[in-house]
């Protein structure tokens, strides 16, 4: 376990180094040692970038392979000696303790809630509510009304009586 962790950490270190080289080369741009002619210098710069990207890709694959061999942690990580940070007299380290404890509590709650969610979701198969049709027959709602003409005439006459100046 310790050897695989050391290999994974070394892979991270190599990946960071190759990323640093790539960004350094990109920030420098085309240099004078690439050549005087613009086209030749640009081609050399592109070849150098291509080489750095290939190197970066190799380190990324190495990191992925080394991480794949690691076993996942069994549970949330304990704080160990970080509880002694509250006894520090320097303000820099004292300010670190509270966010560290809050993040630990938050991670612990996320772990607990995810375990509860897995338990609940594994019990519910969703076949009953979403995949099958309901057996109940529902009444079709009416979308229009059929009113006899006498009722409409009476309503219009009542409007005429309410407002004498307006004729319908």
From TrEMBL:
Keywords carried by this UniProt record: Nucleus, Transcription, Transcription regulation
Localization annotation: Nucleus
Annotated GO CC locations: mediator complex
Protein's GO biological process: regulation of transcription by RNA polymerase II
Source species, domain of life: Eukaryota
Keyword Transcription: yes
Main location: nucleus
Molecular function GO labels: transcription coactivator activity
Stored InterPro entries: Mediator_Med27
Family to which the UniProt record says this protein belongs: Belongs to the Mediator complex subunit 27 family.
The protein, known as: Mediator of RNA polymerase II transcription subunit 27
Organism listed in the record: Cacopsylla melanoneura
Lineage: Eukaryota, Metazoa, Ecdysozoa, Arthropoda, Hexapoda
